[in-house]
Amino acid sequence: MFVFIIRRILQTIPVFLGVTIIVFSLMHLIPGDPAQIMAGESAPAEQVENIRERLGLNDPYPVQYWNYLSNVLQGDLGNSIRSGRDVTTEIGHRFWITVELAFYSIVLSVFLGLIAGIVSAVKQYSFRDVTLMLIALFGLSMPNFWLGLMLIQWFAIGLDVPSWIPFIDNTAWFKPSGWGSFQQIVLPVITLGTGGAAIIARMTRSSMLEVIDQDYIRTARAKGAKERVVIYRHALKNALIPVVTVVGLQFGGLLGGAVLTETVFAINGMGKLVIDAIQARDFPLVQGTVLVASLLFVLVNLIVDITYRYLNKRIDFN
Amino acid sequence: MANESQNFDNILEIKELQTSFFTEDVEIKAVDGVTFDLPKGKTVGIVGESGSGKSITSLSILRLIDRPGKIVGGEIIFKGENLLDKSNEEMRKIRGNQISMIFQEPMTSLNPTYTIGQQIGEAYKIHEGLNKAEARKKSIDMLKLVGIPSPEKRIDQYPHELSGGMRQRVMIAIALACNPDLLIADEPTTALDVTIQAQILELIKELQEKLDMSVLLITHDLGVVAETCDYVAVMYCGKIVEYTDVKTLFSNPQHPYTVGLINSLPSHEEDIEGDLPIIKGMVPNPTNLPSGCRFAPRCPYATELCNTLPELVTDDNNHQTRCWIYTDEWNGSTEVKTYAERNS
Amino acid sequence: MGQPAINEQKSIPIKKKKSQRFKDFYKKFKKNKAAVIGAILIFLFILISIIGPFFVPYDPGAVSPTNKLEPPSSDHWFGTDHHGRDIFSRIIKGMSYTLFVGFSSVFLGLIVGTLLGIISGYYGGRTDSFIMRCMDVLLAFPGILLALAIVSVLGGSLRNVIIAIAVFSVPVFARIVRGSTLAVRKLEYIDAIKALGASDSRIIFKHILPNTISPLIVQATLTIATAILTASGLSFLGLGAKPPTPEWGAMLSDGRNYLYQAPHVAFYPGMAIVIVVIAFNILGDGLRDAFDPKSKK
């Protein structure tokens, strides 16, 4: 196990280097002169040269990359062109907002996904199963930004309920923008968590169905175990193992999806930061944000892999 | 000696059991009117090829038939009570307690995510309401009983840490934990090495005497039957074609299918030149069974009479056979009767 | 916005006559009602995208300041947007963009991914580990972010969105093809054919590719669904199709500003995306069941 963890950590090093190479190269894929583009089309030549010098664009690529990498390793992601502040500061607390959003969303997806998946699998082809799987299909096929907009319209603008109906307040239940209070958190988390919930539900269902057919489930029944125990003790524990990997992959989708969710709900996280940076042509900021998000994803996958291995070590020994 | 069986108190009587599987458009009668008795303290073997319905019969007794299968008729009388009349909850209390079962695949029949101790202990928790410590103590005793060395260490291991033979011993420990009256062993040795096979069979036999159990042994291996069983039911395509005590089966097999099975065993008495005789043809497709005797298409003696299904007929020695040859209606060569006998 | 599901086919392919394989597949496929519905829907969508624009009630680009933000009515089935354009007509017109982006980006990713996967699986060794590490790196970018980064660099346009999504789907295809290539390569008959002097290209095209086709088709179908979602997301962010284009994501982005007065402006384009994506998803699921030798029906 220890050897595995070390090996797995070592394996992330080339991935890390690869990510930095790609992020670094992005700057050079910009058609035309990056310095000119960043300075603006009508900028005087002097200013362009200034930027070029500051970014070290006159050095040969490998040297530039080496400088970039050593800066990154020291936690220096360069300076934002617009604000002039360093990128790490710019990302700063926005990083935590996005992590918080992603965390709540993944909790929601796992919670809803597991329940729906188990309930479906236990009664395969029942009305319940079919309905839940149709909902999951819908959830999976829905653009989350659209769901976000619809949620805003339904729950944050105010329901179109005639005022004479008692108990239903037709003022807004939740807030359409910002981050922090409960009223601000609910809608974005649902928006971002729904797709993951759908995927986890489908995965859990098929994994449960596979496990329920296993010999050891028959053994448990032959032992006289209650059906509830058979499902929740014997089947679920085994069925969850493959679901763990999906949760890890989901996290990536979630970080990406956060870009759209944060845009819809005007949340000042990393996702909105990257969009603002793209629109402002603030490439160092784009580079920095993409790099940080990728590293976060790599880290989460590392943890998930180790967890998976830990859960699976009893099975995959040979 | 066959008469003895009637004086026995039967622990299990199966009457006209029918279990079917329902696919989109057809009903597959996996078990089609099976009737036999299991005398108390004895071992009955059910022999047959795969697809003969022998495993389904054993699963039906515990009512462990899963969708799309269903028990559609018959009676399963266990200690005088029909199991098919029991509620699910009553049935659950019988499983693993009064009737236990061990399966063919020890490699996959244990839950990979729980320790051996947890899996044996569960039986005690379910049926005897023991707490963790008591269950653990009893589990260790059980592991000792089934011949697992250093049980205190083994009890905390996971299934993957044990060999196939060890796992089957653990399965037996789980099955026998609550001292059942009846043990159903579904091909318990098929997946094991030959040397281990003998050990496991020996263990079952030994524990049967020690714990005063009856055993229903499902196997495709006549050799295993000869070693362990008192009575044998031969199944073919969901029906019992012959039922008798084990000695008679080998000395005087009646049904042509049984004769074929026995003839295809390697014999050490006579020198057989060339290949072993085999039963010609193939087991018919279960969705398209012959309307008469199921074995007729492969039977060397079949006549038009065999297009009608024969009854299971009991002779004076309580030897039951489902074949027209042993009835008065038989219109084929009379030599066949003696031929079949002699040929064994 | 899910990461495309990674669906490596591990089972060793069984050699069967082509016609027989197709018959088996067709029989199973026909029984899978959802898949048939998906296929019919997609066929209809393609038809709509080709001939639909000739039959729409209004010119999708026609601005009508007097009819701004009208709710759905018999005149305007899905209402009008902030320029008074008919949303129904725009959605019909937008179908072709959606399908084009979906098909072309996945096709591109499929070609490149298959090539890399075959090279990787067939030649093995260092080539293999190099290519696969590169794929790992691409997969290390969370979801839409890689596409976002690429588009931000290349500039927002439909063409660049296609390129970005293609890059983003390459690793998935490469992994699948590598997996089945390895599985086939291990089979003894490949050694036998090699001993008989078959060339690499013959082995690849005659023996390896046919065996990777089914998982590829399944994955491609499901990836089209993801690609459409990603593309609409990029357009929504203003990084894809530019405003007058009736691209659904861009239309949604317009509708965003009128949620209070005219929620239908955002509702219908989103519904259109959902329906198209559902069609590809159920077709993909159905194909997977039909191709899967383990599936019961």
Write out the strand line-up for the largest beta sheet of chain B, numbering strands in chain order.
Answer: 6-7-8-3-9-10-12-11
Sketch the major β-sheet of chain B. Answer: 8 strands, mixed
Overall outline of chain B: globular
What distance separates the N and C termini of chain C? 31 Å
Round the Cα radius of gyration of chain C to an integer and report it: 22 Å
Class by helix and strand content of chain B? alpha/beta
Question: Mind sketching the topology for me?
Answer:
The complex is a heterotrimer of chains A (318), B (344) and C (297).
Chain A: H1 2-29, H2 34-39, H3 45-55, H4 61-73, H5 87-122, H6 127-140, H7 144-156, H8 182-212, H9 215-222, H10 227-264, H11 270-279, H12 283-312
Chain B: H1 4-7, E1 10-22, E2 27-39, E3 43-47, H2 54-61, E4 69-78, E5 81-82, H3 88-94, E6 99-102, H4 116-128, H5 132-145, H6 151-154, H7 164-176, E7 182-186, H8 194-211, E8 214-219, H9 222-228, E9 231-236, E10 239-245, H10 246-251, H11 256-263, E11 313-314, E12 320-321, H12 335-343
Parallel strand pairs in B: 3-8, 3-9, 6-7, 7-8
Antiparallel strand pairs in B: 1-2, 1-4, 4-5, 9-10, 10-12, 11-12
Helix pairs in contact in B: 4-5, 4-7, 5-7, 7-8
Chain C: H1 18-31, H2 33-55, H3 87-123, H4 125-139, H5 145-154, H6 158-186, H7 188-195, H8 200-236, H9 248-255, H10 264-291
Characterise the protein shown here.
The complex is a heterotrimer of chains A (318), B (344) and C (297). Chain A has helices at 2-29, 34-39, 45-55, 61-73, 87-122, 127-140, 144-156, 182-212, 215-222, 227-264, 270-279, 283-312. By secondary structure, chain A is mainly α. Chain A is flat and about 85 Å long. In chain B, helix 4 (116-128) packs parallel to helix 7 and helix 5 crosses helix 7. Chain B is 32% helix and 22% strand. Among the domains of chain B are: 105-179; 256-342, no CATH class. The longest helix of chain C has 37 residues, at 87-123. At the A-B interface, helix 9 and helix 10 of A face helix 3, helix 4 and helix 7 of B.
Question: What's this model, at a glance?
Answer:
The complex is a heterotrimer of chains A (318), B (344) and C (297). With 344 residues, chain B is α/β, with parallel strands linked by helices.
